[in-house]
Every structure is written in structure tokens, then in C-alpha cells.
Amino acid sequence: MKKFILLLSLCFVGHFSILAQKKGKTKIQTPAPTAKKPLTHAVYDFWKDMPERAVSNNGQWFAVAINPQEGDGRIAFKNLITNQMDSVARGTELKFSTDSEFAVFKIKPPLAGILLLHGNKK
Predict the structure, then answer these.
(1) Residue 97 and residue 45: Cα distance in Å, rounded?
(2) Are 92 and 65 in contact (CB under 8 A)?
(3) Would you call 114 exposed, middle or buried from its count of C-beta atoms within 10 A (0-12, 13-18, 19+)?
(4) What is the mean pLDDT of the chain?
């Protein structure tokens, strides 16, 4: 009797698993593939790095350092409540104070000035 019940349940489960594999008559429309732009070395100059991110302790401010591949970066601030945005050129090493009243960061010298000074050494 146990063998009969086991065999019957296996046939029952097998029948539904076979029916589940059948495809329906409706076809799903897939979007046409779009042609991708080739990746060249000229594209790399537009890539930006975001090495530093910070959220204030009260959750009101978000800040991120955005650095291009070559050139001067910036720190972008966003108030998450009012959506107000601001930025500071050449900022780095970002920290918020514990009471979320101040953002502290260093300002790098401009890259053009550094390259000019290195050129004068030679």
C-alpha cells in the first residue's frame, strides 16, 4: 500500500512538472538590442572617481568627493531634506563633525599650478 501511494504521488508530481515545462502560446516581446558604442581611450578622460563618501550623523547631509581622471576634483554636498546642493573645488579628506554642524576637509592646490612649478624645476 505504501509503495502504491508513493508511486501515485511521484506520478502526480511528475505530471505537473512536465506541464510546467510547456511553453504558453503568448510570446513575450523582447526589445531590439541597441548598438553599443565602442570603448576607446578617449572615453577614459570622462570617467570620474568617488573615493570618499560621508553622511552626517543626523542624516541631513550627504557629501561625496568627485575626482576626474586628470584635473581638479570637487566635493559635492547635498541636503537630503531640502535637496539643496553645493560644492567646493579641489576638496579632499572629507569629515563631518559629530554634531553635524560642520564639514571639515582639505583643499588641494590647483593641478595647473603644480604642473607649472614642476616644469620650472627642470
Answers:
(1) 34
(2) yes
(3) exposed
(4) 84
Give the pLDDT band (50/70/90) at residue 98: very high
Q: Are 83 and 92 in contact (CB under 8 A)?
A: no
**What whole-number distance in Å separates Cα of residue 65 and Cα of residue 92?**
7
If one counts every other C-beta atom within 10 angstroms of the C-beta of residue 57, the result is: 11
Higher pLDDT, 106 or 32: 106
Measured over the CA atoms of residue 3, residue 8, residue 13 and residue 17, the dihedral's sign is: positive
In order of 2, 16, 75, 100, the CA distances from 6 in angstroms are 6, 16, 68, 67
All structural domains of the chain with their residue ranges? 42-121
Q: Are 74 and 110 in contact (CB under 8 A)?
A: no
DSSP SS3 for 115? helix
Report how far Cα 14 is from the mean position of its chain's Cα atoms: 45
Reported as half-sphere exposure (CB side, CA atoms, 13 A), residue 26 has a value of: 2
The pLDDT value recorded for residue 65 is 95
